[in-house]
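Final report, Chapter 2: Outcomes

The project's central promise was a pipeline that accepts a single protein chain and returns its three-dimensional structure in a standardized token representation, suitable for archiving and comparison. That pipeline is now operational. To close this chapter, we reproduce one record exactly as it appears in the project archive, with the input sequence first and the structure output second.
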Amino acid sequence: MADKKKSGEILNVPAHVGIIMDGNGRWASKRGLPRKFGHREGAKTFRTITKACRDMGVKYVTYYAFSTENWSRPEDEVEAIMDLFEKYLDEVKDFIEENIRIRFIGDRSVLKPTLLEKMDDTEKTSENFTAMDCLLAINYGGRDEITRAVKNIAGKVKNGELSVDDINEQLVTDSLDTSFAPPVDLIIRSGGEERLSNFLIWQAAYAEYYFTDVLWPDFSKKELENALKAYSDRNRRFGGVKSSK
């Protein structure tokens, strides 16, 4: 007879967690600070939570770092975020020591050459690490990702590499930025909002959601545990009926 679940125990750890890091700017504004200070604090939380995900058994974690819509923010804030990306890629040795593989998803075509160089170097340096994959979505949007995938597939049909009959859900999945990763099991969003905001909209088709009012710089290991416990307690049926046995 199987052991009963202990109170608060996480028996079913999600393989792939998506995290929308919301609330950096509001965290700073509440303290009378420029918004860029919130992003700096949020970057520290990102490092803490990434290691915590690894320790809890998560195999893939994807962060919504900068969306295709974020370019509309004030120019100085966008510049500060981009500078912060470069700074933390210079300090990625922490993740190397933790055996965490770093990958990037999103449209890289408009990113600065210096940032692109560091992204490429980080991916190459960590490509053989196996403890966990950490994906950073930079200049990413779910609709943009699907559009790019469809264009890629259409090009192959035009060139005779594929026929229209070859197009199915698996082909679309394999054409996305996250082709190497499993579907998202759990989406966590901090900051009080309760929407996807164009994040992993294909991959999260059957994901569970966990929303919290905690602003991202204040998001702790305990809050992560709460999210994983909530996920573990859910009845995931994927459109079917779960057996009562």
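Archive annotation: Residues 1-5 have pLDDT under 50 and may be disordered.
This record, like all others produced under the grant, will remain available to the consortium after the project formally closes.
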